[in-house]
Design goal:
Shape: globular
Largest sheet: 12 strands, antiparallel
Distance between the termini: 22 Å
Strand content: 35-45%
Helix content: 10-25%
Low-confidence stretches: 1-9, 15-27
Number of strands: 12
Structural class: mainly beta
Mean pLDDT: 77
């Protein structure tokens, strides 16, 4: 679950593994405003910091192991991941050092493509259209995510028309989906990420993630279910210094 890019959180959720009026959603050229909104989201070259709660479960639903972690890509590699809790308690210094050393030892991966590269914008379908905003249901690209049953995931993106920006990204699972050539299953998915525009007259800040934005997914790999929940999302500048 540790893919990293300028828009890594959105790509992470999409992978799981990892325009104005007149839009018809019947195929052909994608809606211009929808394309621009995604380009603007990606061009900020920001990443997302977040708090992640992971719970490994027994088959009967009892919790086997639970961890609370914080990921902040604005920090040097050796400090990106921090272990905050383990099984409801503060970790010992030895547990924290061992976990953080293992977690942070993995090198940063090359930036992934923009989230738009994983979405079939040409077949976006308008589900709501008003004077101020439009919401699209957008299928994922099967040529990019060949290992995922993409037809079972519903992605809805809401665009603010006057500001020409994405203000909300949501995703749900229609039914359990097999991934990784059938070795794992996604049994639950719920994403609700809302973005606020930067302060008026700001020349350097980007859209800010609203408080209360969350995402969760439940994976079952080789029969062992694990829940992931993300909260306290914050857009940050990716660390570019020496580690």
């Amino acid at each position: 679950m540790e893919t990293r890019s300028r828009s890594s959180f959105f790509c992470r959720v999409l992978l799981l593994l990892v325009s104005m009026g007149g839009w018809t959603g019947l195929g052909g050229a994608p809606a211009p405003l929808l394309v621009q909104a995604f380009e603007d989201l990606h061009s900020s070259r920001d990443d997302l910091a977040f708090t992640q709660r992971s719970r490994e479960l027994h088959d009967d639903g009892r919790v086997r192991t639970e961890r609370l972690e914080r990921y902040d890509p604005s920090l040097p590699d050796r400090e990106r991941w921090r272990l905050l809790e383990i099984d409801g308690r503060a970790p010992t210094e030895a547990e924290r050092q061992q976990w953080e050393h293992r977690r942070n030892a993995k090198p940063r991966k090359r930036p992934l493509k923009s989230p738009a590269a994983y979405l079939d914008l040409e077949h976006a379908r308008v589900v709501e259209d008003t004077a101020d905003q439009a919401s699209f249901e957008i299928p994922l690209r099967p040529d990019v995510l060949r290992l995922l049953a993409v037809e079972k995931i519903s992605v809805v993106v809401t665009v603010d028309k006057p500001l020409r920006r994405i203000e909300r990204i949501g995703a749900t699972l229609r039914e359990p989906a097999r991934i990784l050539m059938g070795l794992a299953r996604i049994t639950d998915l719920d994403v609700d990420v809302r973005l606020d525009p930067p302060p008026e007259n700001s020349t350097h800040e980007t859209d800010r993630v609203q408080d209360g934005s969350t995402a969760r997914v439940t994976l079952s790999k080789l029969g062992s279910p694990t829940e992931y929940r993300w909260s306290e999302l914050k857009r940050v500048k990716t660390y570019a210094g020496a580690n």
